[in-house]
C-alpha cells in the first residue's frame, strides 16, 4: 500500500520524489493518494497524516 511507505519515506516529499523511490509513475502516486483520501473521507495530506497518527499507523519520532 502506498500509505505504508508514507511514514518512512513520504514525510514532506513531493509526488515525484515518492514515485522515484518506489519505482512507479508520478501519476500512480497521485491516483493512489486520491483513492486513499476518498475512501477515508479526507481532503488532503495533512488530514491523512493526522488520521494515520490517530490510528497508530505511524508513530511520532519524539
Automatic annotation (TrEMBL):
GO molecular function: DNA binding
Ranges for domain HTH luxR-type: 1-56
Classification via Gene3D superfamilies: Winged helix-like DNA-binding domain superfamily/Winged helix DNA-binding domain
The organism's place on the tree of life at top rank: Bacteria
SMART domains tied to this protein: HTH_LUXR
Keyword Lipid biosynthesis attributed: no
GO biological process: regulation of DNA-templated transcription
Pfam families in the cross-refs: GerE
Record's protein name: HTH luxR-type domain-containing protein
Organism field: Effusibacillus dendaii
